[in-house]
Amino acid sequence: MDISINKYISETGFCSRREADKYIEQGRVTINDNIASKGNRVQAGDVVEIDGEPLKKKKSTVYIALNKPKGVTCTTDLKDKSNIIDYLNYPSRIFPIGRLDKRSEGLIFLTNDGDIVNKILRAGNQHEKEYIVTVDKPIDLEFVKAMRNGVRILGTVTQKCFVQQEGSNKFRIILTQGLNRQIRRMCEVLGFEVTSLKRVRIMNMTLKDLAPGKWRYFTKEEITNINALVASSSKTEKGNQGNEGMDE
């Protein structure tokens, strides 16, 4: 065995590679009692500890689909009283893949598989996320065209995407990008405020009959399909340059 320290940590199911890098930067990771730094490698027989506790080998992988209700924050920080971990109260350590804004609702995945988190969050994967969005006033064709063709936010222009009007002030949008609070920011630039935002699909998975606040395990078929969809992920250690690929 000879793998990078962040990959080793993620493969134990403790957290994603990106989170592992934060632990390393904070000096909380040791290899054989020596403080680890980014780029260190782990060899067979090495003892890796976080905050003085040895990392345990990964248990069986868990993949969960949750219909997140409004008011739940997609963070593993237990100091945040509305955090998604306490909300789900799952008996073993899991973490969300990407984020949904606290005010937003809908489909989010949670897992203990740090490797699949890393693959899904890569910007290069271009995985589809579908949302139903309601705004504070009626929309028109000009609004739909503008959303489709790209809106300048966060110093860039959003990628062209599918947008379809669903009602006087409601639309469906499919994103492959994941800029921070992307849909809300796009609407704000065009003079609209989002009053309701619901993610109804990630890649091949939809909410189906999952009621708000309820969760279920992935089926074996869904796990196989997700793994096939991310199989083309680059094998490099690079992340996606600070862009959380599963943001709204």
UniProtKB/TrEMBL annotation:
It comes from the Bacteria. It catalyses: uridine(35) in tRNA(Tyr) = pseudouridine(35) in tRNA(Tyr); uridine(2604) in 23S rRNA = pseudouridine(2604) in 23S rRNA. It comes from Chitinophaga silvatica. It holds the Pfam family S4. This is Pseudouridine synthase. Residues 3-61 form the RNA-binding S4 domain. Gene3D superfamilies: Alpha-L RNA-binding motif, Pseudouridine synthase I, catalytic domain, N-terminal subdomain, RNA-binding S4 domain. GO terms for molecular function: 23S rRNA pseudouridine(2604) synthase activity; RNA binding. PROSITE patterns: PSI_RSU, S4. Its EC number is 5.4.99.-.
